[in-house]
Design goal:
Elements: H1 4-30, H2 47-59, H3 63-78, E1 80-82, E2 88-92, H4 101-105, H5 145-153, E3 166-169, E4 175-176, H6 182-197, H7 199-205, H8 219-226, H9 235-256, H10 266-277, H11 282-295
Antiparallel strand pairs: 1-2, 2-3, 3-4
Helix pairs in contact: 2-3, 2-9, 2-11, 3-6, 5-6, 6-9, 9-10
Length: 297
């Protein structure tokens, strides 16, 4: 027997369930950290903290500076982050959900930095501005955002920087981040890595934000799963991001005189990078990075 009230109730229920599912698909992927790894700390990314700490130490920075760089690197996401040895960094104007999030977390990258130092890539486009054919989000004046950052962090020129962050080290008062400083380098290294991490979404969807679909734009699927582990589609981007971070850290030392000789050759760094990116488990990745860091002389 036909029951219109029952039909209306069924349609209402299905609509309600569908709406809840869509909201969850939207909210969860856009309001999460890149990873939920803790190990006694605040949620953080094994790439931005443990892995980066090892890379910059191997590039020639002292253990103290390597720790500060890695903590700052993670604080670009977390705003306030404390590392294993108690080093604390707080940042302003870099937040993932603030007014400058696209600038720091979804920057476009050129084939080289401002002074012609090449960036590693396997993609068809080495200049990621070229992914954006829609002029509504084209690179301002055709200049990749990373070029304005490397001018500030590596070469001491802040003229084109969109906004200057402020920082607090170990709970002291906030100060403006000086150009060419260790803090500027750490912030730049985070954005440099993110330019690779978010590249696939830029390429396929011309997007500089997280969305539930497709997978390369979903923060949970891409950052927690597909960027690590053998054969996953995000792994090549992870490896190139790490190569770029190591190369930029070595270049910073040569350019600014802060730090010493590299402890690793590029081939040695690449061997570590290859192994780290192939590890699926965040616990195992972090421990591998920690053990490698502790074994550095």
């Amino acid at each position: 027997m036909y029951q219109p009230n029952m039909k209306r109730k069924t349609l209402f229920f299905l609509t309600w369930v569908s709406t809840i599912v869509l909201i969850l698909c939207w909210v969860l992927p856009t309001n999460a950290f890149n990873e939920f790894y803790r190990n006694g700390l605040k949620e953080h990314s094994t790439f931005h903290y443990e892995f980066t700490r090892t890379l910059v130490r191997a590039a020639g920075f002292s253990p103290e500076l390597a720790e500060q760089i890695a903590v700052t690197n993670q604080a670009v996401d977390s705003i306030n982050f404390t590392g294993y040895n108690g080093t604390n960094v707080r940042l302003t104007n870099t937040g993932r959900f603030g007014p400058y999030s696209l600038y720091w977390h979804f920057p476009r990258r050129g084939c080289t930095d401002s002074f012609g130092v090449s960036y590693p890539t396997d993609a068809s486009e080495c200049n990621t501005c070229n992914y954006f054919t829609d002029s509504s989000d084209s690179c301002p004046r055709g200049i990749p955002e990373l070029n304005t950052m490397d001018q500030w962090a590596l070469y001491g020129n802040s003229d084109d920087l969109l906004v200057t962050p402020k920082y607090s080290l170990n709970r002291r008062r906030f100060k403006t981040v000086p150009a060419s400083s260790i803090t500027a380098l750490a912030i730049f290294l985070h954005s440099l890595a993110d330019s690779y991490s978010h590249e696939r979404c830029m390429e396929t969807m011309q997007l500089r934000e997280h969305k539930p679909f497709p997978a390369e734009c979903n923060v949970l699927l891409w950052h927690l799963d597909l960027e690590f582990g053998g054969g996953d589609p995000g792994v090549p981007y992870t490896k190139n991001a790490a190569r770029a971070v190591f190369k930029a850290a070595v270049h910073y030392i040569a350019q600014n005189g802060e730090g010493g000789d590299p402890l690793w050759s590029f081939d040695e760094a690449n061997n570590f990078i290859e192994q780290f990116a192939e590890i699926e488990s965040p616990d195992e990745r972090a421990q591998f990075a920690i053990d490698t860091y502790n074994n550095l002389s």
